[in-house]
Amino acid sequence: MDIDRARTFLEIVQTGSFRDAADRLHVTQTTVSARIRTLEDELGRTLFVRNRNGAQLTTAGKEFQPYAQSMVQLWERARHQLAIPAGRTSIVALGGELSLWNPLLLDWLVWMRKAMPKVAVRARVGLPDQLLEQLRTGVLDIAVLYAPKLLPGFTVKLLQEERLVLVRSTPKTGDAEPTDYVHVDWGPLFAMQHNEDAGFSEPGLMVGLGPLGLSYVLRAGGMGYFRKSAVAPHISAGELELVESAPEFTYPVYAVYPDAAAERGDVMESLKGLTEVME
Fold first, then answer.
1. In 44-58, which ranges are continuous DSSP H helix?
2. Distance between terminal CA atoms of the chain?
3. Given this model, what pLDDT does residue 113 score?
4. Closest Cα partner for 158 from 170, 138, 144, 173?
5. Are residues 94 and 121 in contact, defined by beta-carbon separation less than 8 angstroms?
6. What angle do CA 208, 190, 195 make, to 5 degrees?
7. What SS3 state is found at 194?
8. Cα dihedral sign, 76-104-176-205
9. Residue 129 confidence (pLDDT)
10. Contact 268, 94 (CB under 8 A)
């Protein structure tokens, strides 16, 4: 079967419409319709019901979905394996959210180099939706995320219960007052808990990336919620201090990988290493 037809099928499932799938695949809607029509002819079953709200899977479409997922992942896996560098036994593709790369995933890469020297590593950094898309299409073997969406055919493993703590700059850090609050968008759960418990007025600065907010506070002064492991060295160095009376918030970290990865020793060993560096 043409792999493009399987990709097109999965894009429609993901986006919920032929038009949006065409936009993401950078083809015309006519091309998308033709691919699905050919696929349905090959299978002898209708896969989608189209209506005003987009496209919905039929019972046959739901049955076909895991097979399409496996086809695309197998294709990507074959491409990876054929590109294995000389002297290496396999390739493991890792991905993580931007705010997790330093130090967690950097430590992971160092562990991989020492413990699995025969395995080539491909590392990617991205936003959660980007990483999930790369997992879904087989580009990634493992992704480390804070709040992953559940995907059929994938395992979501809790790695660590990270904590978000309120810190403020010490007087020597910057010109701003330590009470100038920098709001970091840590996701909907934090937003809900934060609005209920923190009691801060409207912040003067809002950022969508933890490391950016932390770098700002370190340079310009102020206060904000950041990952406990990220601020620990700055507290030790006297650049930041904990606000002792402030509430803390849970921010769990998860690894997401295909169910089929359980049969791959290199992926399972890589996950073991990730667990070790988080201890």
1. none
2. 45
3. 93
4. 144
5. yes
6. 105
7. helix
8. positive
9. 82
10. no
Is residue 34 within 8 A of residue 103, CB to CB? The reply is no
Q: Do domains 3-67 and 161-251 have the same CATH topology?
A: no
Any idea which residue has 């402030």 for tokens? 246
pLDDT of residue 198: 53
In degrees rounded to 5, what are phi and psi of residue 163?
-120, 140
The answer to whether the beta carbons of residues 184 and 224 sit under 8 Å apart is yes
Instruction: Give the DSSP H/E element, type plus range, for residue 238.
Output: none
Angle at 255 between CA 131 and CA 17, to 5 degrees: 35
C-beta of residue 225 within 8 angstroms of C-beta of residue 194: yes
Percent of the chain with pLDDT over 70: 92
Distance separating alpha carbons of residues 91 and 95, to the nearest angstrom: 13
227 pLDDT above the threshold of 80: yes
For residue 206, give the amino acid letter: M
CATH 3.30.1490.100 fits 81-158+252-278, yes or no: no
- pTM to 2 decimal places: 0.66
In the CATH hierarchy, which top-level class contains the domain 3-67?
mainly alpha
103: cis peptide before it, omega within 30°?
yes
Q: Is 162 left (phi over 0), alpha (psi -120 to 50) or beta?
A: beta
Other beta carbons within 10 Å of 51 = 8
What is 161-251's CATH superfamily?
Periplasmic binding protein-like II (3.40.190.10)
Does the pLDDT at position 41 exceed 80? yes
The whole-number average pLDDT for the span 39-50 is 92
Q: In angstroms, rounded to a whole number, what is the distance separating the alpha carbons of residues 120 and 81?
A: 10
